[in-house]
Amino acid sequence: MVVDQLRDADVDRLFQALADATRRDIVRRVTAGEYSVSGLAALYAMSFAAVQKHVAVLERASLVTKEKRGREQIVRGNHEGLAKARRLLDEYEAIWRQRAERIADILAEG
């Protein structure tokens, strides 16, 4: 796996972070604009601590960044992390397309 030499642990963190609907929604929101953690917590029917844990998972996967600003922790999307995820999925798609082309070639020969 090439994709900027991501280690297996990095890939695991990336997909585990994106496997949760709340975390995907947080990524969608903070990619469009920055939010404070408390602002995000107001959007979900869960505790502030639970939202904070979701943000921490996303931060470890490099999908968001968090910055302390005064008393607030501001979360924003990390475009570089999202680009790595896209490139990884593109790589998987290329493998799939190569396999499909080989199958088509075999069927054309028969």
TrEMBL record:
Residues 3-97 form the HTH arsR-type domain. PROSITE patterns: HTH_ARSR_2 (PS50987). CDD domains: HTH_ARSR (cd00090). It comes from the Bacteria. GO terms for molecular function: DNA-binding transcription factor activity. This is ArsR family transcriptional regulator.
